[in-house]
Amino acid sequence: MGRPSKPLLDRERITTAALQLVDEKGEFSVPQIAKKLGVQTASVYHHVDGRDGIVELLRERVCEAIDPTPLKSPGLPWEEAMAAWARSYRAAFAAHPKAIPLLATSPVRAPRVLEQYELAAGLLLDAGFAPADVMPVIIGLDNVVLGSALDLAAPETMWEPADETVTPRLAEALAAMGAAGRPDRAFELALRGLIAEARGLLLA
Amino acid sequence: MGRPSKPLLDRERITTAALQLVDEKGEFSVPQIAKKLGVQTASVYHHVDGRDGIVELLRERVCEAIDPTPLKSPGLPWEEAMAAWARSYRAAFAAHPKAIPLLATSPVRAPRVLEQYELAAGLLLDAGFAPADVMPVIIGLDNVVLGSALDLAAPETMWEPADETVTPRLAEALAAMGAAGRPDRAFELALRGLIAEARGLLLA
């Protein structure tokens, strides 16, 4: 009997199964992954560095969609570079909103993701930021991006008062907003605000 | 046989059971709640307006911890009122980070929560905001608050490079940040930025 041309189990397939579980339920367990792949739980552990290792594989998979190019484009002003990175980062996480709490609350160890933070930190240091200001700016950007990625996954109509006469001013604001571009306007406002505030730190 | 002095099942107990499930796993199902309470699934449905009704009970429970006072303090400038509300809102959700994706992606119908948005919309309209600008400001604030609430639930050490020589600039920025107040500085930066940007809309 020849060996099968594809291994029954590999890190790619484990990551795909874990992401399917997370997209569905916001969580995964190693036995659930094993069940999904039709193998023993112990076989899964054989391929990965424990449960935490699977979280990092998930992080790499979700973050593959983030374009790091703006962070390494020497001619680009740091404001534009950070904004472009943030937009791409937001789109990547908006595709997997249920993964957000899991990934946002476990430490980043995935080398290819750390590399993006290395580029962002280098960009801000090169722009003249005090080292103590760099992480607050990056984390502030993380906050805006992840909060907004969740909003992109929200229903079109987010506020549904049973009786609009009880909340007339909210009704007025909702009617005036229009449907188009709701999450985008809020995100761009928060992003612009953060970058302006960061510029303030730089000039202080 | 007399009736028990407390009903076996009421909305408070259903809400508590649902929140325990969500805090643990980020999700709940009606059969899981029934199992937790030792009753039939149908009995749970008898007390609530379906699964969506339970989501709204959860929202009310989490949002009970938000202090709406700043939104109805006539002497307070709108900037301070919104910032104080945002800080209280962030603390309430940081206590239940796994509830964030569930609540952020289902429409708000809970009357007591809609009331807070009514106050916020009224505050901004009274401050002179164009009606079309009110929701983008409120949603931008939501984004910053929810992203930061997730960050409050993150581990102290969020970036763990295996080899710091590969990410020297990130290491420099992390070392300079110090441990204390990491999430707070980022949140205040993003919050200040959003409010300044909103002020810009008001003056435009």
Protein architecture, described:
- The structure is a homodimer of 204-residue chains.
- Chain A is mostly helical and 204 residues long.
- Chain A has two domains: 11-48, Arc Repressor Mutant, subunit A, CATH 1.10.10; 66-203, Tetracycline Repressor, domain 2, CATH 1.10.357.10.
- The first copy, chain A, has ten helices and no strands.
- Chain A has helices at 11-25, 30-37, 41-47, 50-63, 78-94, 100-104, 111-126, 131-152, 168-177, 182-203.
- In chain A, helix 8 (131-152) packs antiparallel against helix 10 (182-203).
- The longest helix of chain A is centred in the last third of the chain and has 22 residues, at 131-152.
- The termini of chain A are far apart.
- The relative contact order of chain A is 0.10.
- The model of chain A has no long low-confidence stretch (mean pLDDT 92).
- Chains A and B meet through helix 6, helix 7, helix 8, helix 9 and helix 10 of A and helix 6, helix 7, helix 8, helix 9 and helix 10 of B.
Low-confidence region ranges of chain A:
none
Q: Give the count of structural domains of chain A.
A: 2
The description of the largest β-sheet of chain A is: none
Radius of gyration of chain A: 21 Å
Shape of chain A, please?
flat
CATH architecture of the largest domain in chain A: Orthogonal Bundle
Oligomer: homodimer
The CATH topology assignment of the largest domain in chain A is: Tetracycline Repressor, domain 2
Question: Most extensive interface: pair and counts?
Answer: A-B, 77 and 78 residues
Binned strand content of chain A: under 5%
